[in-house]
Amino acid sequence: MSVLSNSPADAPVDEAARGADNRTTRVDEVGGRNGRRLRWKWIAAIVVIAGVAAAAAVVVSSSESGTTTDAEPITLQAVTAETTDLVEFTDLSGTLRYANATTVGAGGDGVITALVADGATVVQGDELYSVNEQPAVVFYGDVPLYRELTDGATGDDVLMLEQNLSMLGYQVAELDDDGSPVDEDFNVDGVFDAATTDAVERWQDDLGVEPTGVVTPSAVVVLGGPSEVTGVSVDLGSQVQAGTPVLDLNQVAAVTPGVFSQSGGGVELLVTDGQALVSGDVVYSIDGFPVTAIVTSVDFDRELDDGVDDGADVAELEAMLLALGYDAEGTLIVDEVFDDATESALSDWQADLENTFEAVDVDGALDLDEIVIVEPGTTVGTVLLPEPSVVASGTELWTTTVDTTERVVDTAIGVAEQDLLAEGTAVDVEFPDGEVVVGTVRSLATSSTTDPADPTADATLAVEIVVQSVPDSVAALNELDVVVKLVDDIAEGVTAVPVSALVAVGDGRYAVEVVTNAGTEFVAVTPGMFSNGLVEVDGISAGTQVVVPS
């Protein structure tokens, strides 16, 4: 350890002593411009060390005036040099946003005569706005309505229209003389026929517009699912043109293909809107026969019974039975093998179901019409049928939804540094309050762009980063500036002190003031990496107490 001085009174420093705050000392100049020397003038300093903290009141004198004056009291404290890991970052500017945000424009020219409220959540069938009293209604789907639809049209957009009319209750299912359902009035088949025209007219009549049986693109706004209004760009009475931004939406859930009746008959639904399903839930019955949900990504495409080949579907069945408490007296093992224990547990479960649903066949085998497969992460969206109902085979019973309130960060990186943000790379994202969360690079653009305002700027690649969470303090904000922090270098297990402990002593050298039994002394150190308010130092050991401004 190199000791520059045994006493603070003799330690030479320059005028930038102690970083940005040199008020802990008074530096007097003695001699002319060419023969100037610096020395510390301490008239009194009281340092009291308590644990790792110290306070000092400093009174200084001016050699130029010869008078003694009271300087502003400066509080000092001692902190302990620590062994830690330091990381150097490159900071990139980023913008946090919702992943599924969109702007809705006016469908035609005219005056805004109705408008949904900012902050409202809109769902299928809701009116977003009206132009000249012609409403724009929310439909669900992934096919935009790009043309006028009328009798005789066919295609995916017609299918989307029919699916929405059906889910809104405009499908007509009639019964024959013996009460069996028949599909002869409204078929969801992508063909705009007389039955479709009739359904459109009934929908238009309920909207309060002329029932023409023709659907124009301006009458429908196709969304992927329930959405929150995050901004309104116009006022009631505003004059708009086709394409004028009207409102901003954030999709909060995606509507996915729902659950359909596997046969015709009397259906009783046993689920509710928004219900999160788990394996083993009986979700509906058809003519007294129960249908059970299995939540899995595994394909079920065969009957499961004794003797089938081993497979993941068998393991999923066994896992469900165990979770429900059917373990074949402790012999059931989740092993993809349909053995005697599997058959016994399955039979026990079916026997208990039979107590409620008389149509159950207790046979120790699982038929496909006994189950409905539900992807993990989905919930019941909207229950579509009154209860009980008589339905045709293939009738949609309810929609399913997946949460889409995902947040992403948009940033950009130079083409030469693109390897730093390859897909799948984990990065830190810092929020204005200083909190840092982990993000993962989801996509890196394959085409570069340049700033149109600065043609000389380097080309960059757009980057999208998915964040796992956001701080509660900004959870309600739709958009926010953040910092993406890229790791440049890591120093592991180094001795570090606060940056404010460094004292510049001239000629590019530095020292820190350390606490000793006799008071304090200045010790030469060599700075290394700077990070997060700390600096790596070589010249003192971890555990040494150093003086810093408090």
User: Over the alpha carbons, how many angstroms does the gyration radius reach?
Assistant: 36 Å
The strands making up the biggest β-sheet line up spatially as: 7-27-30-29-28-31
Total beta strand runs: 36
Separate helix tally? 4
Largest sheet: 6 strands, antiparallel, barrel
Helix content: under 10%
Structural class: mainly beta
Structural notes for this entry:
With 550 residues, the chain is mostly beta strands. It is 10% helix and 41% strand. The strands form nine sheets. Strands 7-27-30-29-28-31 form a six-stranded antiparallel β-barrel. A five-stranded mixed sheet has the order 15-12-11-9-17. β34 (519-531) and β35 (534-538) form a beta hairpin. The protein is flat.
Topology:
Layout: E1 27-30, E2 37-40, E3 44-50, E4 53-61, E5 68-69, E6 76-80, E7 82-98, E8 101-105, E9 110-115, E10 121-122, E11 127-131, E12 134-140, H1 156-167, E13 174-175, E14 181-182, H2 194-207, E15 220-223, E16 227-232, E17 239-240, E18 245-251, E19 253-260, E20 265-269, E21 282-286, E22 289-295, H3 312-323, H4 340-354, E23 371-374, E24 378-383, E25 389-391, E26 396-403, E27 407-414, E28 426-430, E29 436-444, E30 460-467, E31 479-498, E32 503-506, E33 509-516, E34 519-531, E35 534-538, E36 545-549
Parallel strand pairs: 12-15, 22-23
Antiparallel strand pairs: 1-2, 3-4, 4-5, 6-36, 7-27, 7-31, 8-18, 9-11, 9-17, 10-16, 11-12, 13-14, 16-18, 19-26, 20-21, 20-25, 21-22, 24-26, 27-30, 28-29, 28-31, 29-30, 31-35, 32-33, 33-34, 34-35
